[in-house]
Amino acid sequence: MRRLIRNGLLEADEGVDAVLEAFRAWDVDGDGRIDPTELERVLVLLNPSFTKTDMTKMMKAIDKNKDGSIDYEEFTDWIADKKPMKK
């Protein structure tokens, strides 16, 4: 899933702008963080077979500081594949 999202974003002419735009789109309430509900909403749109278990695993892998949400730095690190996701 990460590879699919990353490839789509980085293929855009304005790679950094595309990542920021994606983050803002995923951050529905505009608080600068993607919470589990926002993440689930996007993942189900991208792949309707995505489960809550899949979302929970993804959230744990991306949320490095374990505060329950994904900030922009965590999002960009995930997109850039700076740390492999654990299953």
UniProtKB/TrEMBL annotation:
Give the UniProt keywords, A-Z.
Calcium, Metal-binding, Repeat
Q: Which Pfam families match?
A: EF-hand_7
The residue stretches assigned to a coiled coil in this entry are none
InterPro entries according to UniProt = EF-hand-dom_pair (IPR011992), EF_Hand_1_Ca_BS (IPR018247), EF_hand_dom (IPR002048), EF_hand_pair_protein_CML-like (IPR039647)
Domain EF-hand, by residue range, is: 14-49, 50-85
Q: Which SMART domains match?
A: EFh (SM00054)
> Superkingdom of the source?
Eukaryota
Quote the protein name from its UniProt record.
EF-hand domain-containing protein
